[in-house]
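Example 3.2
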Amino acid sequence: MQDNIHYISITELSKLIENKSVSPVELIEYTFNRIEKLDHIYKSFVTLMKDEAISSALIAEKEISNGNYKGYLHGVPIALKDLVFTKGVPTMGGCKVLRNYIPSFDSTVVRRLKSAGAIILGKLNLTEAAVGGYNPEFDIPRNPWGIEYYTGGSSSGSAVATSLGLCFGSLGSDTGGSIRFPSASCGIVGLKPTWGRVSRYGLLDLAPSLDHLGPMTRYVEDAAIMFDAIAGYDKNDATSLIEKVTDVLPYIDNGIEGMKIGVDEKYISENVDSEIVESVFNCIYLLKKLGAEVIKVSMPELRDYLPAWNIICSTEAAISHKENYPSRKNDYGGWFRTWLEKGSNYSAIEYANANLIRIKLNNILKNVFSNIDVLISPSMTKLPHKIDESVLYGNYIKRDIYFGKFTQPFDFNGAPTLSIPSGFSKSGLPLSVQFIGKHLEELKLFQIGKLYESNTDWHTMNPVTI
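Structure, written as tokens:
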């Protein structure tokens, strides 16, 4: 096995697997050895599916040796956020109350990944129920760029495992920033597809009207490969979109000549860490040199809109957990227990009014995009903070109102977003830029992301493990 194979792209790896330079069985054994070596420190996995993975690798190797190569994901080790159903394997969602929950079927995304030949390594850690804090029964993942730093939530294990090369790609979910925060914090690529573009059938719900599933990878092209595998209509999910999904990968290198990129300098800069802001403006400058047309736009003042996210998310979370809350409320951690209590106490009028606020903001955002292809912003407002277990295992703490200003509006309207590395802070922590597109226009995000990635070297830098 070549040195540092765990950090090569899926594109590179697939060529090695196809020409039989790399054995899927040896690759799986190598990957599990790496997990055993590192993950007792970084805490990204909650369940390993070793027997199933080895069995799948044996099948993949036989198929490939017989000339039945399925494509880019055939024989490639992938991992899943532990709210994605896997038949016969616990799906706990970071919740003590779900420790014994074992689905009787695979989710649609798992079926599609397996159909593409991917090998599922196991289930990844996350904040309790995919919100803010952790249940005391579960470990807090550690950031590969500094174990004392937070990984971002809620898809924390997905980001850590991907950043460390414990898998070649993972699935995360995003309700208010849960793909983008950890991707930014751990220096990887995260795609939040258009809402309904990827089936949520076989998913532990948080807030169904806001929940998205998407890939988290080390390279933009790898996210496109995973997106092509999992996207598309699903008859089992009444909210999935019927519009045909054309594979994005064949067109990813078409460039951005003439692409209109919207910039609101106040939105990018106000209440945002200066190093993050600088990296985004450097990105804008580079994209302009590469052929993009930069257009000034005006984002709305979000102070009157963002609180509606808390009401919608917590109310829908209370509905999603009604089988266990309040009957088993003491089995929930303090953070999520308070979240459920809040959601249970909002009135129908408050929930309805929050949705009206959401509709108003969505219409304003539609107008912002009327003359642009892509909006650019940071992925998050602050650098990762130091881990404080008393907070992450503790009670709900109200966040700064602008905490989700780059994420929650685009869960509200279901627009696709792509977060990619844009540099490093003076303290050595990753920086990230976010591209936001129009509905169903993931391809433009991949095109701009791939070109930016190709003209920078942030994606080539890997964490130094301890």
